Amino acid sequence: MLTARKIKTLAYGACFLTVLYYFGVFTHLFESEFKHHFRYPYDGDIEELVQQLRSNATPKVPPINTYNFRFAKSSSNKCKNVENLRLVFLVKSAPEHFDRRLAIRSSWGFEHRFSDVEIRTVFLLGERSDATSQLKIRKEFESYKDIVQANFTDDYYNNTYKTMMGFTWAARFCPNARFYMFVDDDYYVSTKNLLRFIRNPTAYPNYLEPAKQRKLHQYDFDLDVNVRLYAGFVFVSAPHRHRTSKWYVSLSEYPYDMWPPYVTAGAYVVSREALLDMYYASFYTKHFKFDDIYVGLLAYKCKIEPYHCDQFYFNKLGYNFEDYKYLVATHGYGDPFELVKVWTQQRAKNSA
Ligand SMILES: *[C@@H]1O[C@H](CO)[C@@H](O)[C@H](O)[C@H]1NC(C)=O
Ligand SMILES: *[C@@H]1O[C@H](CO)[C@@H](O)[C@H](O)[C@H]1NC(C)=O
Q1: pTM of this prediction?
Q2: Atom 9 (ligand 1): residue with closest C-alpha?
Q3: For residue 218, what pLDDT is reported?
Q4: Which ligand has an atom closest to residue 150 CA?
Q5: Rounded CA gap, 225 and 170, in Å?
Q6: With respect to CATH, is domain 40-348 assigned 3.90.550.50?
Q7: Ligand nearest to the CA of 152
Q8: How far is the CA of 158 from the centre of ligand 2 (A)?
Q9: Where does the sequence pass through the membrane (predicted)?
Q10: Whether the CB of 158 sits within 6 Å of ligand 2
């Protein structure tokens, strides 16, 4: 017979199980091991297919994924006839962030910052349904000619579309740059330090003792135009199975216990060779809703190992001149006044 006590125990048990379920404990039990079982459609070696697409040949296997963007604004002349184009900023921005874009154009995104280094900056935007903001963007585009916008709704869960629009744009309209920096519009970037970093990532920052530095200098990225660099703050982490998480993923979306190693999406730099390989790899990589994971998947399929540098901060590093001396990028600059203030100070000290 069920006594009150037994009922109570059962009820507690049920609650306990519900809580475990909610926190994804059971989901973890059904995950499979990334290390031994990882597969993600297209299931097969794609290197040859990528090379076939890159050389305009018909690939042996037809693509399984195609991002058919219709560019409403393409700023297609941005990189045209630019010789020795060193760096392109692809700034992931939201349509209504007019003031952030203005601040970026006049600070780290300024194209004429250095007389001897060619830099270009474009802003990646999705669409909004309201006519007022579309009109404002059109005016902004006419003034600055630096907006890239295609037909997808601007939304957090559409960030992969924004990123792949950037890859598509670069491959189609701007394949002549050495390096591409993808960065959010709420970042502070030191363009000067970024240029130093891409000159020789393994020797950056240069406060290492000279003996060690010399050893690292054996490999000079600058001389090797074929280098496949994909760099920033690298994460090796597990999927969130907690049901309330913004980053929750179900087993059917992704069944493994670990993500492929990836660079956090707020700021990362890719060389031309990496960008083109990864772009064409997207034709053989099923869409995924989180952009940093998707880019990580592309790199993994291309066998490009992400390169970690802790001078890319995915959270905000509190401001202080010394701490910002070698910093490449930091999150937390959604306030355009603060951004310009910090940038002006760092520039005066020759660190921006
Ligand atoms: C954008 O337009 C292209 C070409 O018209 C179309 O194939 C594609 O499905 C559209 N994309 C979205 C997300 O609506
Ligand atoms: C992503 O963009 C597509 C195409 O505009 C749209 O249909 C879809 O609703 C968007 N997704 C989200 C989550 O906003």
Answers
A1: 0.91
A2: 68
A3: 47
A4: 1
A5: 17
A6: yes
A7: 2
A8: 6
A9: 9-30
A10: yes
